[in-house]
Write a structure and sequence with these properties.
The protein is globular. The protein is of the alpha/beta class. It is 37% helix and 16% strand. Helix 14 runs antiparallel to helix 24. The strands form three sheets. It has a seven-stranded mixed sheet with strand order 10-9-8-7-11-12-13. A six-stranded parallel sheet has the order 2-1-3-4-6-5, with helices on both faces. Strands 15-14-16-17-19-18 form a six-stranded parallel sheet, with helices on both faces.
């Protein structure tokens, strides 16, 4: 039997770690690895049109499955294209292994064609970034990289020169058992007891939840009932905590709505559960704050803490809830629920006002109809910008749906490539890319990846011919909008030219039928919806330092921003209040 080369050993280890596919673009230094994949039936090579797409797709796959995913780029410019998607995966805590192939090892440091230094370039967006400069480093270096990515929930980058990849693998190489799952982290008894005392002493408690509450929905609900606490959430916590939640008071931050802001500021104890919420301007500075997080480096970096608790949210609450005294006073909770319902009632009709006549179409209406028609287990990928606003306010979580975006890194053009990764996980699951025209056109070449691999992704294009969020940022800074207008083609015609089901929607009455047809279509589809460029959004609470030169009178051209079915949820929660 022929001796393995390093590339073949590399691929075998990826398979052992559970990697199902490697996203990338082929090229010289990467060819030995791609050829090894060609001959290995346990793993697939997924050809994309741009390496940035490969990294975004791998990050989305990792977020959907919770398992290690992988991407690759050839030497120099090829692997450099990975960096933006890897930043996003790393900040999203997605376990991704990136292969940055390299120039011939004997030429490194001599200004060779396409020479870069990946082991330096990727260090900031990874937990582990090293170069295999000798076959003898295999397989230990790759195994170490995998365990960093899985164990610390982020990116590892391995640099591999093409000539090393083709070299014979070392004989009798030590291959140890790979760590492919994370353990649970339980706080110490001292922290649990101190937190329990703080809760027992507090009269008004608010929970503010992030993505760290994934898998802890039942525990958070039980805890909130015991301490009679309203629950607010950050955008990344929405899909995990908002559904079946009779304590919900909405979302805080720039995309916020409802009474979450009031609940976090009018309490006397704020408990941050699994959130690294970045906008400290929306956090109070005059209440006691406790933060619970599995990553100790997150503790206290957004606000001054009265107590830091290192642990998984679920494990922490399992230990904590039985130790706190059950509260009976619901006055603060009920007050926040009423404020939440009132806040939503004031804007709930924004997207339905004259909707049958309003042209261009209200984007809020598009999001609301999409929410109603999409499958109960759909995966939504959401472009950064105004699509984030519509997803935050209109997509209804139910414990089965997923919503993925560049919520921490804030990159443009993420939705389409993330949809590719999500769809490869399960071709039978509905995947919807909520794309803005700016983001879609930035990586539009990978729309052809849907065609090439026959991925049934449904692209719903919010086409306002503008960079809407940037226009809002300019208004906030007191600047006239400039350089934000896009001169767009008929994107549906481009889709049809590529052999894809494509339709353009310019009137509200056409929308539901167009979406239904796209969802019924067996392959990829694009619905190009011409939306109102004046539909912008403002935060739920506006302070002088937030708006700078933004004149409040200008809010006449800023839509209130409806909240879809969330107003119904708020009214339902009011019905749960005990009668006086």
């Amino acid at each position: 039997m022929a001796r393995q080369n390093v590339a073949e050993q590399f691929v075998d280890i990826l398979v052992r770690a559970g990697v199902k596919r490697l996203y990338g673009v082929v090229g010289d230094s990467l060819n030995p690895v791609v050829d090894a994949i060609r001959r290995n039936r346990a793993i697939d090579w997924v050809q994309v049109r741009h390496e940035e797409t490969a990294a975004f797709a791998a990050g989305a796959e990792a977020q959907i499955t919770g398992r290690l995913a992988a991407c690759a780029g050839s030497c120099g410019p090829g692997n450099l294209h990975l960096i933006n998607g890897l930043y996003d995966a790393h900040r999203s805590m997605a376990p991704v292994l990136a292969l940055a192939s390299h120039i011939p090892s004997g030429e490194i440091g001599l200004g060779y064609f396409q020479e870069t230094h990946p082991e330096q370039l990727f260090r900031e967006c990874s937990h582990y970034c090293e170069m295999i400069s000798s076959p003898q480093q295999m397989p230990r270096l790759l195994q170490t990289a995998i365990q960093h990515a899985v164990g610390r929930s982020g990116v590892s980058v391995v640099t591999l020169p093409g000539d090393i990849a083709s070299a014979p693998a070392p004989e009798r190489a030590v291959e140890h058992a790979l760590v492919t799952t994370r353990p649970s982290v339980r706080p110490g008894d001292a922290e649990i007891e101190k937190l329990a005392r703080m809760i027992d002493e507090a009269e008004r408690i608010t929970l503010f939840c992030g993505s760290g509450t994934a898998g802890a929905h039942a525990e958070v609900m039980e805890f909130a009932e015991r301490i009679k606490s309203p629950i607010g959430h950050a955008l990344r916590g929405k899909e995990w905590i908002q559904y079946d939640n009779k304590y919900d008071v909405g979302m805080s931050g720039l995309l916020g709505y409802g009474a979450a802001y009031e609940a976090t500021h009018e309490c006397d104890l704020l408990i941050l559960l699994g959130t690294d919420f970045p906008y400290n301007a929306f956090l109070p500075d005059d209440v006691k704050i406790v933060q619970v997080d599995v990553r100790p480096e997150n503790l206290g970096r957004r606000s001054k803490l009265d107590l830091a608790v290192w642990g998984d949210v679920r494990e922490t609450l399992l230990c904590l809830t039985p130790r706190v005294r059950a509260k009976t006073d619901r006055r603060f909770l009920d007050k926040m629920l009423r404020k939440h319902a009132d806040a939503l009632e004031g804007v709930v009709k924004a997207y339905t006002r004259k909707v049958d006549k309003h042209v261009p179409i209200h984007p809020e209406y598009v999001a609301a109809v999409l929410d109603e028609l999409a499958d109960d287990d759909a995966v939504f990928t959401v472009d950064t910008g105004m699509c984030n606003v519509w997803a935050a306010r209109y997509l209804s979580p139910n414990g089965r749906r997923r919503v993925i975006g560049s919520f921490s890194h804030g990159s443009m053009a993420n939705a389409l490539p993330q949809a590719i990764g999500a769809q490869f996980v399960d071709r039978n699951r509905q995947v919807v890319s909520m794309s803005g025209d700016g983001g879609f056109s930035m990586l539009m070449g990978d729309f052809l990846t849907l065609v090439q691999h026959d991925l049934p992704v449904k692209v719903v294009l919010f086409n306002n011919s503008a960079l809407g969020m940037v226009e809002l940022e300019m208004m906030v800074a007191g600047l006239p909008s400039y350089g934000t207008t896009n001169h767009n083609p008929d994107f549906s015609a481009i889709a049809r030219a590529a052999g894809v089901h494509g339709v353009r929607v310019e009137k509200p009455g056409q929308l539901a039928g167009a979406l239904k047809d796209a969802f019924r279509h067996k392959g990829p589809a694009l619905v190009d919806v011409v939306t109102d460029p004046n539909a912008l959004s403002i935060p739920p609470k506006i302070k002088a330092d937030m708006v700078a030169g933004f004149a409040l009178s200008a809010s006449k051209i800023v839509l209130d921003g409806g909240v879809g079915r969330m107003a119904q949820m708020a009214r339902s929660n009011l019905r749960n209040m005990p009668r006086p």
